Amino acid sequence: MDGIHDMGGMQGWGTVAIDPDEPVFREPWHGRAFAMGAMSMGLSGTNLDAFRHGLERLHPYDYLVDGYYGRWLACAETLLVDSGVLAPGAVEARARNLTGETVDEPADVEENKPVYERGGAGSLREIDEVPAFSPGDRVRAKDMRTGGHTRMPGYIRGRTGTVRALRPAALLPDTNAHFLGENPQHVYTVEFDSTELWGPDAEAAALRIDLFESYLEAT
Amino acid sequence: MADTNTTDRLPPAVRTEALESLLTERGLVKSEVLDGFINRFVNDVGPMNGAKVVAKAWTDPDYRQHLLADGTGAIKELGFAGPQGEHIVVVENSDDVHNVVVCTLCSCYPWPVLGLPPEWYKDPAYRSRMVREPRTLLSEMGLDLDDDVEVRVWDSSAENRYLVLPQRPEGTDDLSEEELAALVTRDAMVGVAKVGAT
What we know:
CATH class of the largest domain in chain B: Alpha Beta
Number of domains of chain A: 2
Strand content of chain B: 5-15%
Order of helices and strands of chain A: HHHHHEEHEHEE
Oligomer: heterodimer
Largest sheet of chain A: 5 strands, antiparallel
Strand order of the largest sheet of chain A: 4-3-2-1-5
CATH architecture of the largest domain in chain B: Alpha-Beta Complex
CATH topology of the largest domain in chain B: Nitrile Hydratase, Chain A
Strand order of the largest sheet of chain B: 1-4
Number of strands of chain A: 5
CATH class of the largest domain in chain A: Mainly Alpha
């Protein structure tokens, strides 16, 4: 989906500063939100791709307002509510009660975890198909548009590059995130010249990105 | 699309506490398990792991070759594996090529060797600009590269995770592997800095 998460090439965000003394978790809640976010995939019966899509589905304000761990927290809640592990509004009501208000908490709802087949642990798979592309091949990133999850960022759509490496086959996030099948595919590292992406005045650089076979077409 | 609550939302600390209390009272998580998970990433998994990998590669040519050919396997030899490390690719900096890693779509990062990503790596400015104006951004972050150095930016968009093998600084011939590891920084292993001799 074309969302706030697809940040490659966006402008207007200013600069970054490195804090050499940054702790792993700046606030105690960061660590707990991280741990519960990581556990939310198993608890909701979903998967890593669904988690990433959960992040993308947050309203842009919610995506940004409380930073990285804020979005992990919000995403955990999204997945747990989607799967019926928690009722909509349960976290908000409990939080209000923890802050001294007295509000009714919603009754539990029926669990609604996704039903789908998994081909094993992790994301990598062995597949028998012969790779469609080889290192050195010129390929174009398809001009794909989807309202669902994809790992093809907008900034390379329609651009032409060169295959640099074949990586281990992996399950396709575009379908796995929606519990529509793992569809494992070959994955390629493709290099795009900066001028192909950003025009003739671009800074000299080579952008290398990992793309699933179905994202690519021969030129 | 999830609804948002922009006006009356409670702060994230209390929403985190609320989520934990809901999950613990249902027996779905135990607070001690969360504590253990957090402690692992605070104490055991971090850039000190990657630094050991780099120092070994600097001092052991066979290991360096193995590392560049099979990052995951060579890293596992040192005992480092786990989530976000299913397939780790090590890319080597040289006088001619400088590698730098980003994840524009989220904040993918090689946890087993670097731990959790720092704030700058997750910052929208880093995620948006590293693929578009890497030289300018690196310069703003304190790393100026000569024009004749090729900049390779790796956008971690699938399940491969990238670790930069920095150049060994000059004047370190007499240092032990352990002393070398102490010089290697997280920032150098992402590619936004070089390793200095002191």
